[in-house]
Amino acid sequence: MSKLKYCISMIVKFVLKNYFLRVYNVNYKYVNFNPKQKGPFFLIGNHVLLMDAFFCNFVLKGYAIPVVNAFVYTDVKKRIGMTKMIDSIVKRKGQSDIQTIRSIRKFVKNGNSIALYPEGNTSYYGTNTESMYATAKLLKMQKIDVVVAKTSGGYLAKPRWRKSKTKKPYVEIEMSLLFTKDQLKDMSVEDIYDRMVNSYKYNDYEWNRNKNHKYIGKNRLEGAHRVIYGCPTCESINTIKTSGDSIVCTNCKETGIIDDYGYINNTIYDNFVDWGAYQETLLRKKRLDSFVVEGEYYKIDWDKSKKIMISKNCILNFSNKVLVIESLDTKEIINVKEIKGEAYTESNEFSFDYKDQTYLFITESPKFLLDLVTTIKEA
Question: What pTM was estimated for this model as a whole?
Answer without folding.
Answer: 0.93
